[in-house]
Design brief:
This protein has 73 residues and is an alpha+beta fold. The protein is built from two helices and two strands; from the N terminus they run H-E-E-H. 74% of the residues lie in helices and 16% in strands.
Length: 73
Amino acid sequence: MSRLRFYAGALLGTLVSVFALQNLQDVQVRLFLWYLELPLVVVVASATVIGALWASLWLAVRRRRRAKLDFDV
């Protein structure tokens, strides 16, 4: 199962990297009240990193809750 996750993550990372590198034009991004002019590769990479961090945080909280429940029993 861990091998499958590794290969799925490697494939997803490769696809995101190829997509980002093929889209180097600048885009206008609105963040709250500001407008930023950034290359699309930066936007895609930032969104990917933020998503990975949120997923990691969610998994850590889930594991901690499960460990706490196992410890209390």
